[in-house]
Amino acid sequence: MPDWVLVVVGAAVVFAAAYFLGRSSGPPPQPRKRARKAAAVEIEVDEEEEEEAQPAPRKAKAAGKASGSRKAPEPSPPAVPALIYDDVESDEEVDPTKVGMLRPKRPVLQPPTNVIVNDDAAAEDEPEKANPFILVSATAQTDRGLRRKRNEDNLLVMVDRGVYAVADGMGGYAGGEIASELAVRTLEKAFANNEFEGDPHHGIPVAASELARGIQAANAAILDKAESDRKLEGMGTTICAARFSPSKQRLYVGHVGDSRLYRMRANQLKQITSDHTMRDLGATGPNASLLSRAVGIWPTVPIDVILCKPEPGDIYLLCSDGLTKMVDDVGIGNAMRSGKAPSEVVEGLITKANEHGGKDNITVILISVQDARTSMPPR
Predicted confidence band at 38 (pLDDT cuts at 50, 70, 90)? Predict the structure, then answer.
């Protein structure tokens, strides 16, 4: 037998032995498969046909309908669905965790007072009498003036409480208007509810202390508002408030800034308040007229408390500096002693201030004092 025949026969025997040996050890290894989630059921797809199987849900649906084509394998037992994360950060779609901030309540402070006795008879407070000694009436008006874009003055008239006030606000972005409004509204609320924060002062009448504490409450309200809105930072206001006590024949004045209180008695005009300006601290030149104190700037503000004894026939004038910058004391005195009706006096003073330039807002309250015994109708 030729040698090449032996070689061929040997190769065939080796090939056959290898074939039967592989069959006896199990099926040939299948290509590695990847599980993919499709319609909540895992479908096995050959890794070699992965591109053909995209997208997985649509491919699985088509395989179920095809006839004569490759049959989809039996589904495996449901597996626990895997979490799928997008490439985009999920924090953008979820409200971030925040820490709440609760502003601490401002402590209630007793304002420092500077007590000034204007009338010697007012040094000692009188007990309240059953019947009033005096009757008080008032006329009030405020005007924007000719130069200002808005009116930052505010006024308060509480006839039943005998409380009257003028506030002249300051500060950009409408801050002055807001500050003066807060001042008079806070003062009004305190007297309407008869609620005054802080401890009473020692050495001054209770009614005077209540007026001072009402102004301090206004100071705190303005500070709180400014802290809640940065645009209002630095706003403040002057205030000149008068509280009449007809049953005691007393007048208590609370004063901060350069709004003023005048009194006309026996045809003599007197300025009851003193302006709080830098001139008091020795400043000269243009800075001398700047305010040295105002309501709403610091946690507390020193308040001038002035004690007076009003007499029948007195006329009191509360006003902002929009009047006193345009009309001097002589002009104010002439208007108050003119004998005209209170409404005409107020209107005339505002008109005169505008005729002289009207550079600022103008607010005037005219208060007339009468004898209760001769003015009250008999019972």
Answer: very low
Q: Crossing angle for the helix pair 206-228 and 175-193, nearest 10 degrees?
A: 140
Q: How far apart are CA 101 and CA 227, in angstroms?
A: 14
Q: Which helix (H) or strand (E) holds 64?
A: helix 56-65
* 184 burial level (CB within 10 Å; 0-12, 13-18, 19+): buried
Distance CA 247, CA 261 (A): 22
Report how far residue 220's alpha carbon sits from residue 226's, in angstroms, rounded to the nearest whole number.
Answer: 10
Residue with tokens 């008239």: 157
How far, CA to CA in Å, does 58 sit from each of 45, 82, 186, 280? 13, 19, 71, 89
* Backbone phi, psi, residue 123, to 5°: -65, -35
Q: pLDDT band at residue 110, thresholds of 50, 70 and 90? A: confident
Strand partners, 240: 166, 255
Query: What is the rounded distance in angstroms from the CA atom of residue 262 to the CA atom of residue 319?
Result: 9
Residue 60: per-residue pLDDT: 39
> How many CA atoms, within 13 angstroms, populate the side-chain half-sphere of residue 56?
15
Q: CA quadruple 344, 349, 352, 354: dihedral positive or negative?
A: negative
Domains of the chain: 37-68 (no CATH), 116-375 (3.60.40.10)
Taking a C-beta distance cutoff of 8 angstroms, is the pair 74, 266 a contact?
no
What pLDDT is stored for residue 75 in this prediction? Answer: 58
Q: Which residues contact 272 (CB under 8 A, 6 or more apart)?
A: 118, 253, 260, 261, 262, 263, 306, 308, 316
Residue 50 binned pLDDT confidence (cut-offs 50, 70, 90): very low
- Full-model pTM: 0.72
Q: Read off the pLDDT band of 204 (50, 70, 90).
A: very high
